[in-house]
Records
---
Amino acid sequence: MELGITFLIAGSLALFVMLPLLSRDQEGQGVLPVDVTPTADLKRRRLVVYENLQDLEFEYKAGKIAPEDYEALRNNYRAEAAGLMAASLEVERADAGEALIEREVAARRAERRQPPAPDYRCPKCGFENPLPVKFCGECGAALRPAKKKG
Ligand SMILES: [Zn+2]
């Protein structure tokens, strides 16, 4: 009888010690696949924490975990979840900032980009004059803007 109780205590202690290690292991494996954007990663980790919380709740209700252990673990998970939540917000804010900067840069680039030059290709020699000129830079032939044709 005494041995059995000792076993039980040792067993639950081992579980208590192993639990965080196990969950961390799962997390490590989960880092590898598919979506590796920081936002998705944080969201996934948060879900893992919530799952752990639910498991903890379940085990506590099943009488597998002592109230003080339950309290401590739950606080840990909640702190972790809160940290991940804050990190998510931080990443989202950074993403939004980056998107804003990118949009601004794109707008500046678009402004700087000059409208496509009209065709100043010489009808005589075929030289493509890079600037709007009246005479071909290559052969000196008079150029007429293509638009006024007809
Ligand atoms: Zn020419």
---
Amino acid sequence: MSDPACWVFNVYQSASKPPASPPHPRHLLRLLLGFLAMAAPPQPVPAPAAVRPDVFRLGFIGPGNLAESIARGVAASGVLPATAIRTAPHRRPERAEAFSSIGAHILETNAQVVDDSDVIVISVKPQIVRQVLVELKPLLSEEKLLVSIAAGIKMEDLQGWSGHRRVIRVMPNTPSAVGQAASVMCLGEMATENDENRVRSLFSAIGKVWTAEEKYFDAVTGLSGSGPAYIFLAIEAMADGGVAAGLPRDLALGLASQTVLGAATMVNQTGKHPGQLKDMVTSPAGTTITGIQELEKGAFRGTLINAVVAATKRCRELSQS
Ligand SMILES: NC(=O)c1ccc[n+]([C@@H]2O[C@H](COP(=O)([O-])OP(=O)(O)OC[C@H]3O[C@@H](n4cnc5c(N)ncnc54)[C@H](OP(=O)(O)O)[C@@H]3O)[C@@H](O)[C@H]2O)c1
């Protein structure tokens, strides 16, 4: 009996039980009016306070390939509106056009970009970083966050050249171009938790992000920085194997790259150890274990381990020279 008419009837019943005589229509009308007065018109329910997106102005010093990938990812994923992004062209006007096509603001000079940004990404080649930071040093007020993606340039140098302590260093990798970067960041002395969250949101727009101490950055470069090239080689070699076994080239290449993508996705999505996934697909005396036996004869795993260690060592040498 949730119908109001029934409710009125029930109220009447309980208030005047037993009725001495049938209710006079005037009483019924009064009850009904009373009920209507009690049932106040529904008030608009205030919408739950929406979490305000953290909109900040993002400037790129160096409108190159990686900067464009980040800008595109950030705008496409809605982390920031495109209008919150700015850069200035250097020599090639087509770089500015690429940013314009995203909807970013094109300013005239690096100084204007710094002046008009809260977060400034240094995205020039490593050998230019010093010169650029020394030039921008007088403009870097305390509230600005400096982010460097330049490979091999250490936090100590970034802070020293810029005279700024609110710095985050990030090491992304080339799959940033397709939104599948593996990026690692480390925080400078004065970078805040909010700064870390902002940079995480930017690089999450182009892949996955970890925070780690800077002491790991050489090894990060040897693994995820150089790693895509190791896998390109593996894809090419697997495709060559397919061709050697009689497959047409296109089919072999498609199968090889999709197999690498599928295997990596399984590791990421199942959370299972790759050794466990390997065991699940190797049946006794089957084809896969026969193939693995050949890989082990060629020291497949040892070679990959050595490759990462050698690239790490080389990165260390280069950053010391
Ligand atoms: N690409 C990657 O996947 C990747 C991965 C990890 C780290 N990184 C790092 O990311 C940085 C950028 O790499 P990238 O591949 O994007 O290089 P890039 O395409 O060559 O971009 C560099 C940009 O800097 C501009 N530039 C040069 N001198 C400048 C100056 N004085 N002021 C302002 N802009 C200037 C260049 O403009 P003009 O061409 O017009 O001179 C160009 O647009 C590098 O430090 C690299 O180590 C890249």
